[in-house]
Design brief:
The chain is mainly α. Helices cover 80% and strands 0% of the residues. The protein has helices at residues 2-45, 49-64, 67-77, 87-111, 116-124, 129-144, 146-159, 173-183, 187-216. α1 packs antiparallel against α2 (49-64), α1 packs across α7 and α4 packs across α6. The longest helix is centred in the first third of the chain and has 44 residues, at 2-45. The chain is flat.
Length: 220
């Protein structure tokens, strides 16, 4: 306990800034990733086989490629193609692409929970395909995937540790632990504090997700 108290006395503000950067990267990656995932899901439902093939390939590529490999490609390979992206946007872009692929995959599972009879009834009422998707299918699919999306948000938050692999102006929690371990003998205490902050954030997200799921869950 003495080591942790001494560490917080020396690095307390730095841990606060690192936690805020972790939250910022999580939010800036998850929100566009979630929205992009919805767009990909809707487009995959349209009766256009070539478009569906391209988007399926998109989902499979970014769902299966390691995030570190994708970040390395964006930071070190794209400049060879004259595409220069700063470090922080590179981390956000990496997490956004991965998040969108998993969102599209989870929403596909959510769509499978919607009864085919509802779509047939909507067609019988004269509704157009996009109207059926936006008004009938997607609302129910979103309500069915609250728990998987909560787990994805936690995964994105933990994956912000990717930021420690590039020289950002600020430090996320993992990068701060690495610096403290390099500069002093407080590596174990620093790891314990960072782990506690990661766990606390994850538990907060899980609680919020469970609360939302109880409110919007469809009882069948």
């Amino acid at each position: 306990m003495g080591g942790v108290s001494s560490l917080l006395a020396d690095y307390g503000p730095a841990f606060g800034q690192a936690l805020l950067l972790t939250w910022k990267l999580t939010l800036l990656s998850f929100v566009p990733g979630f929205l992009l995932g919805i767009v990909v899901t809707v487009l995959r439902l349209l009766p256009l086989p070539p478009l569906r093939f391209v988007l399926t390939a998109y989902v499979e590529i970014f769902r299966n490629i390691p995030s570190v490999a994708l970040l390395i490609f964006i930071v070190f390979a794209l400049p060879d193609l004259n595409v220069l992206i700063d470090y922080e946007p590179s981390v956000i872009l990496t997490l956004t692409l991965v998040c969108s692929a998993f969102t599209a995959d989870y929403l596909r599972s959510g769509i499978n929970t919607v009864g085919g009879g509802q779509v047939e009834a909507a067609l019988a009422l004269g509704m157009r395909p996009l109207r059926i998707i936006s008004a009938v299918v997607m609302p129910q699919a979103l309500r069915a995937v609250v728990q998987p999306m909560t787990s994805l948000l936690i995964a994105v938050m933990l994956s912000t540790s990717l930021a420690s692999q590039v020289p950002l102006p600020g430090r996320d929690l993992t990068a701060l632990v690495s610096k403290i371990a390099t500069d002093s003998a407080a590596g174990i205490a620093a790891f314990a504090v960072a782990a506690a902050l990661y766990v606390a954030t994850g538990l907060l997200i899980a609680w919020a997700g469970a609360t939302l799921d109880k409110k919007v869950r469809i009882l069948r």
